[in-house]
Amino acid sequence: MASSPSCSNYCYNGNKSLLASVIVSVIVVTITISSGGVAIAEGGRVPFACDPKNGLTRTLRFCWTHVPIHVRVQDLIGRLTLAEKIRLVVNNAIAVPRLGIQGYEWWSEALHGVSNVGPGTKFGGPFPGATSFPQVITTAASFNQSLWLEIGRVVSDEARAMYNGGAAGLTFWSPNVNIFRDPRWGRGQETPGEDPTLAAKYAASYVQGLQGNGAGDRLKVAACCKHYTAYDLDNWNGIDRFHFNAKVSKQDLADTYDVPFKACVLEGKVASVMCSYNQVNGKPTCADPELLRSTIRGQWGLNGYIVSDCDSVGVYYDSQHYTRTPEEAAADAIKAGLDLDCGPFLAIHTDAAIRQGLISENDLNLALANLITVQMRLGMFDGEPSAQQYGNLGPRDVCTPAHQELALEAARQGIVLLENKGNALPLSPTRVRTVAVIGPNSDVTVTMIGNYAGVACGYTSPLQGISRYVKTVHQAGCRDVACGGNQLFGAAEIASRRTDATILVMGLDQSIEAETRDRVGLLLPGLQQELVSRVARAARGPVVLVIMSGGPVDVSFAKNDPKITAILWAGYPGQAGGTAIADVIFGRTNPGGRLPMTWYPESYLSKVPMTIMDMRPNPSTGYPGRTYRFYKGPVVYPFGHGLSYSRFSQTLVLAPKQVSVSFSTPLKAQTNSTWASSSIKVSHANCDALHMGFHVDVKNEGSMDGTHTLLIFSKPPINGNNNWSEDKKLVSFHKVLVPAGSKQRVSVGVHVCKHLSVVDEFGVRRIPMGDHELHIGDLKHSISVQTQD
Ligand SMILES: *[C@@H]1O[C@H](CO)[C@@H](O)[C@H](O)[C@H]1NC(C)=O
Ligand SMILES: *[C@@H]1O[C@H](CO)[C@@H](O)[C@H](O)[C@H]1NC(C)=O
Ligand SMILES: *[C@@H]1O[C@H](CO)[C@@H](O)[C@H](O)[C@H]1NC(C)=O
């Protein structure tokens, strides 16, 4: 987290004008006064608006709950003055006391638990903490959609409870669904990984969990998918996100960067999207009507509001010098379709922009309508919170045993067993009586919750978790993850020589990878590698290496060291991480997590400047491409990798071999391009009839119950015109629990338009004709796709 309280986490350190900071403090003061100090009252918060105790309420139509929301919204907008409107399109919206409306702070966060990043949420008093789930990259590794939904449901219970107690808002700017494009990205930990299909499913499930399935379009809390779009560089090699122009092809935008956002809006029905700091093809995303107005609102039909990243309107004026005047910058944002500014810029410059005729008051009304509609869907204009749905949630609904158990379960499901030489794991707690627990992450707490976290209910560190099974000898080995010296190595070696087994908990923390901090390399920092090798050489028993990190780590040295018998990736496993790690090591949990991103070797970095957004390789420059979909070089561990203590076999029992595509538009009328002969546009196909069902039997050949994740990939046909450059892509995944020795049948749906289509260089989705391949583990199956005459 940043040190300055006024700009908190998304801290923009550019040259802010003095005027801006003066106005910020004015706004803050206004809110404090108008909301009567902190809005915590005995037994709950003061109603945000339409307080039944206020006689005014009965006369205000926007307070009448039986009137349709769009009518109430227009009624309220009709009563506001221009000056009031201008102060309502910023995150710290002013109070309008003459209409009985309190101030509202729009900025709260709940990436993996209610977070204290953002001024809208405050821990303390009756809310000392909230359940801190594993960081998203870890939860993504579970490949379990019902888990993601359930976490969202629990987080929004706690969020509503904190809102009711006046400790949080109802608008949470989570999740972060940018594609984890480059392994160095400091914020990759916040995301569900590198694959668009996985990220899309995660986004839709978590958002649905958070927002609830209210009657009509009622919202439990309002989620926000961010940062739209192609934002995944923070600060690398002298280039930062405030100045970066991401050059993105139409093809990569459509089949990679936009995919999770589209799913957020269409499947998740998210109530908000945030535009990013960076430019895309020369335009700041928050000033691009093509991205905001045409794509998010037009094509996808967002029912909600579009918010800027914090200070990003200011950033494109001050540091990108995108417009000549600040009024133009304000006008561009509103014209592009921005509804809310996180930051003071619109509060300061909108009035002059209107006076100069760059935008009209009506443009502002459209933005306000989007904002107030969301507040009304949240019930904020329905009077007493305690009288509403979720109104009974309070402090006793936060950090409940069930919620904390789910945080533990999520960590167990997310841990990935990378290596298990000679089935060294699980360790038997009866045969292994003493364990040396070594490493800079072996007794950590806050490291386990990663960034965009809150205050956890409590922690179980790895050392504490392991100590519940066996007697432990603890040696840090390195003072911190930077591991600048070897002074503590000797004691660590002695510990591992004297014990029955050794567990090294190594890896990264926020000092290595974070917001505004991209990594410079993929190896373990400092002398960590040397510590691991020396301890392994000294060890008497099996050596287990646990990596705690958000991004991938090149652990080739350990993979190749016969003395290191097992490697686990724990990600940032959340408040109960230590219990989960121990449960996996001692076999109480059979690991089933899979890597949501490729683990590249260090050498990969020299060929890929972080600034090149291209997903596809470029043979003429030697650029190798990105992610398992396009990169074909050596890897340390591939996307989807993850072992179990059981062995699973898969058999295809029902598998259609061909499918005919019929057209909704006659073939002759279709566009004339190089693709015409070998593929057809999805928009021209009769997609409804193109669904195929497959059955796969999964058998657990081992002696332990376990979960297996079926990853279904498709591979388009190769032909003369092929320029998809896509090898294979994930089309769906199915996680099943299979008891030892038994068999489960899994139904897999493959939809031709959705799953077998590819995107051409114009960003148009097409179905290539010919033989497509489905890959399910080692199974390969060919499907012939033909046109119907
Ligand atoms: C298709 O495009 C080619 C090259 O642009 C052109 O010569 C040809 O006439 C076009 N055919 C049709 C049917 O439009
Ligand atoms: C997915 O997660 C849910 C919630 O924790 C759990 O009940 C379910 O068993 C998990 N599914 C599998 C196959 O492990
Ligand atoms: C593939 O498409 C790119 C443009 O996206 C183009 O530059 C390249 O020449 C094409 N390659 C082939 C083999 O057609």
Report on the architecture of this protein.
The chain is α/β, with parallel strands linked by helices and 789 residues long. The protein has 3 domains: 16-397, Glycoside hydrolase, family 3, N-terminal domain (TIM Barrel, Alpha-Beta Barrel), CATH 3.20.20; 407-607, Rossmann fold (3-Layer(aba) Sandwich); 646-787, Immunoglobulins (Immunoglobulin-like). The strands form 9 sheets. It has a 6-stranded mixed beta sheet with strand order 13-18-17-16-14-15. A 5-stranded mixed beta sheet has the order 20-29-28-23-24. A 3-stranded parallel beta sheet has the order 5-9-12. Helix 18 links the parallel strand 17 (543-548) and strand 18. The radius of gyration is 27 Å and the shape is globular. It starts with 17 loop residues before the first helix and ends with a strand. Residues 1-42 have low confidence and may be disordered. Bound molecules: 2-acetamido-2-deoxy-beta-D-glucopyranose (3 copies). Residues 249, 723, 761 line the site of one 2-acetamido-2-deoxy-beta-D-glucopyranose. It is found in: Secreted. This is Fibronectin type III-like domain-containing protein. Residues 708-780 form the Fibronectin type III-like domain.
Rg over C-alpha atoms, rounded to the nearest angstrom? 27 Å
User: What's the mean pLDDT score?
Assistant: 92
Q: What's the domain count?
A: 3
Percent of sequence in beta strands: 15-25%
CATH architecture of the largest domain: Alpha-Beta Barrel
Low confidence ranges? 1-42
Largest sheet: 6 strands, mixed
